[in-house]
Specification:
Elements: H1 2-20, E1 30-31, E2 36-37, H2 73-84, E3 103-104, H3 109-112, E4 134-139, H4 145-152, E5 171-172, E6 181-192, E7 198-209, E8 221-226, H5 233-237, H6 241-245, E9 264-267, E10 272-275, H7 287-299, H8 318-321, H9 338-349, H10 362-373, E11 384-385, E12 399-400, E13 408-410, E14 428-430, H11 440-444, H12 458-463, H13 470-478, H14 481-491
Antiparallel strand pairs: 1-2, 3-5, 4-8, 6-7, 9-10, 11-12, 13-14
Helix pairs in contact: 1-13, 2-9, 7-9, 10-14
Length: 494
């Protein structure tokens, strides 16, 4: 039973982390008599000294690292301005802000990461909503030896769909057809829990419609992705690789059913593979590459690392390739030159994790004990210490509480996208950090979790867990309602 519970917590919260951003780890002390965990005095400040202690409101994910030097505040604020910048099509009188698209998913970083929070799928309760904060990744299996070499050497994580590229772009500038649209059909599935309680899960099916450049490759693989919250990225970047790899067990050598695996991805600046840390499948090695990749893929803006002015446009899309570019010699022949790219990266690295406000609540501490007893911490590692940094010393040597091991785990058929990315297979996802999940609804106005936002609550996110987390998921479903509620209250307090 202990092994089963352990599987439950690790896998279950693993995916909750994926979609929501939870994590767990570290030992916990408890009073055997009442099963109440003790509170670590550092848990109130999950981002260490960088934790934001400002008032809770819709801007709670948009504050700078609390210990950031005063002289860096201007960089943060200017980076925020570029993060919010609405890019326009070229040619434009605003030469420093043109070059949008020609096909794109959003006109600004902020359009996906609204208030630096979590994206959501289009839904009826969002008037005139589109898929701005959610899109479809596209790829195909390797077709020849060259494709296989690119994947085997990790120089590319996927082979893009030959007509539509790496993701479906549902917007475009004037005179250029958009690529198409994402369509979602949901099927409701009733799940029976203990004590007569039931839950309803919505199972999504995704299709690409209104394709304007012809049919897709017959072997196209699609993966829906919502924008994750932006908090704590600089801290996660500073967790030493050896600390992360200490939890890796790809062959399950200890026989506990949990097989954390590292993704290895190409670091463009380093010119070699590095540990993947960011993205739903740990597909990027650092914040800079993640940020500039989004500039290019999501907005169609060229950057120092991704210099294609047409963004994700392919050779099959002549109207897109022939559209005017916003790149000029004055700005390094780029649309987002190095100053812009570096300031947005600085901003992204320094979005602070908010303080916890009810970590010492008795029911929360009971839920914490259940979280540990059931093994959730096997994937949702609660705590790490960041390493040294000469670039951002204020983020160095901090004890943080992200509740993620940043490794890949098999989450089962139910959550599988069946689309490999780098070393991640079609059932594996990175354990998403859980910190800040308590403020999801306050900041983002919804409670949509997991990689595609299908879960409308933390309980639904847990019930979607399978694979390594199947036993844990079953344990949650069958435990007394009072314990389940305590567990959810703890996770919801992070």
């Amino acid at each position: 039973m202990l092994r089963r519970c352990r599987l439950f917590a690790s896998g279950l919260f693993l995916h909750t982390i994926l979609l929501t951003g939870l994590t767990l780890g570290g030992a916990v002390s408890a009073t055997a008599a009442d099963g109440i965990a003790e509170l670590d005095p550092t848990e109130h400040l999950p981002g260490g000294a960088a934790t934001s202690r400002k008032s809770v409101n819709g801007n709670s994910f948009s504050h700078a690292s609390a210990n950031m030097p005063f002289e860096k505040e201007l960089d943060f604020k200017i980076g925020n301005g570029f993060f919010k910048r609405i890019w326009v099509s070229a040619p434009s009188s605003t030469k420093a802000a043109d070059g949008l698209g020609p096909v794109f998913n959003a006109k600004a970083c902020q359009r996906c990461h609204l208030k630096d929070g979590r994206g959501h799928p289009p839904a009826a309760n969002y008037p005139d909503d589109t898929a701005v904060s959610m899109f479809l990744r596209l790829s195909i299996p390797p077709q020849n030896d060259e494709d296989r070499h690119l994947l085997e050497t990790l120089r590319q994580p996927v082979i893009p769909e030959p007509v539509y590229g790496g993701q479906l772009q549902d917007f475009s500038v004037q005179g250029v057809p958009s690529e198409g649209h994402m369509h979602i059909d949901y099927e409701e599935i009733t799940v029976t829990l203990s004590d007569g309680e039931t839950a309803s899960l919505r199972k999504p099916t995704y299709t690409a419609t209104d394709l304007n450049y012809g049919p897709m490759h017959p072997e196209t693989m699609m993966s829906p992705r919502v924008a994750p919250p932006m908090i704590g990225l600089g801290l996660l970047e500073l967790v030493p690789e050896q600390a992360i790899m200490a939890h890796a067990d790809p062959q399950d050598a200890d026989g506990d059913g949990i097989s954390g695996k590292a993704n290895r991805v190409w670091d463009i600046e380093a010119g070699e593979p590095r540990l993947g840390r960011f993205g739903w499948k740990a597909g990027n090695p650092n914040v800079k590459q993640q940020s500039e990749g989004a500039f290019n893929g999501d907005i169609g803006i060229s950057t120092p690392l991704f210099q294609t002015a047409a963004g994700d446009c392919t050779q099959a899309q002549k109207p897109c390739l022939n559209a005017p570019s916003g790149a000029t010699p004055k700005y390094e022949n780029l649309e987002a030159h190095s100053t812009i790219a570096d300031l947005v990266t600085f901003y992204s690295r320094n979005l602070a994790v908010p303080a916890r406000h009810n970590a010492d609540d008795r029911t929360v501490l009971r839920g914490k004990q259940i979280f540990h007893d059931t093994g959730c911490a096997a994937c949702h590692q609660p705590t790490y210490d960041t390493g040294p940094s000469t670039e951002m010393p204020w983020l160095a040597n901090q004890k943080i509480w992200p509740y993620s091991d940043m490794l890949l785990h098999d989450m089962g058929d139910g959550l599988a996208d069946n689309r490999p990315e780098g070393l991640a297979d079609g059932q594996e996802w990175r354990t998403a950090p859980l910190w800040g999940i308590a403020l999801t609804e306050v900041v983002s106005g919804h409670t949509s979790f997991l990689h595609d936002g299908r879960a409308r609550s933390l309980l639904e996110a847990i019930l979607w867990h399978g694979g390594e987390a199947q036993a844990a998921r079953d344990a949650v479903a069958s435990m007394p309602k009072e314990d389940r509620n305590a567990l959810l209250k703890f996770v919801g307090s992070l």
